[in-house]
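sorry to bug you again but im stuck and you know this stuff better than me. below you get a single protein, a line of residues and a line of whole numbers that encode the local backbone shape. mainly i need to know what kind of three dimensional shape the backbone takes. anything you notice is useful, everything is just below:

***
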Amino acid sequence: MSTDKPGIDPLDGLRAPQDPACDVFLTGTVFLDIVFTGLDSAPVRGTESWARGMGSSPGGVANMATALARLGLHTSLAAAFGDDHYGEYCWDALEQGEGIDLSMSHTVRGWHSPVTVSMAYEGERTMVSHGHEAPPPAPRANRTFPHCPPRARAAVASLAPGRSEPWVATAARHGARIFADVGWDETGRWDLDALPDLVHCQAFLPNAEEAMRYTRTDCPRAAAHALAERVPLAVVTLGAEGAYAVDAATAVTAEVPAIEVEALDPTGAGDVFVAGFVTGTLADWPLADRLAFAGLTAALSVQEFGGSLSAPGWAEIAAWWQRVRTCDGQDPAALQRYAFLEDLLPAAARPWPLRRAVPTIGFRSPA
């Protein structure tokens, strides 16, 4: 869990008394993630492999929720939690450790928490998951989700072919900006019309392969322009090449290269990218600054292991900025790309790199 609470509000100066208390709402499945790192190769059948590192943390939708909260956004999460120790740990880590609002969440008696075991090696990962779908929550007087999610500045949705989530339309109707990503289309159709909630989205953030398949193009930049005909803002992540975005309303385009880092574990990097982009958008930054910030937060995350474990806060961002400005041989033009951070960041109180992962799900407080 993050212990860095520098008190930075990226929306400082933009808030008004009539604004919703919630900056970002999201919903989904929370997993307990157990991550092994330091493997020299993929596990081989019939053998035992030892990992040099291990971490545990809330995963699944918790990756995104944690990334948003650590960037100073008031985050509300609706999810089911098991009443086992794993569920208790995840609830406590998110509510007490990260300050995430769980008033829309619920505990399911007798339901065990979903678990993912992730093995990171050679910059890639292999995952094994287990879980069962949670039963719907029992009716309760003060629970209105999913039919009426809380009023929020923004909401993050995960689109899937042939599936419509009623809360997305409701949130958009109540003024929330909808940011959406999408997973691999197992049907093989790659039909944008099969994503009914896309019509409610302000921003759509697929990766390059997904974008090209959905638009029948062979260039991710061309795919971004094609997507901008369907959504106000199309953002295509290009992996090691960075990201490219098209603002349909202004015809502004932006491309920012990725920051070269040694990746330890890519788990949750896509969630962190979206969180960074949502932060910059709600703060009304220029499009290129939003891309740069999202790419920076994702780059910082892959240097740690775990999903929510690795999501950077402002202290990590400040430590990185302080370090790169004092390193010899830096490209002045590349540094200038991140000069907008100057007015945002606190003085870094701790040296780079910052580590916080722990190898277990928690320790009991001493009596």
Observations:
- The chain has a mean pLDDT of 88.
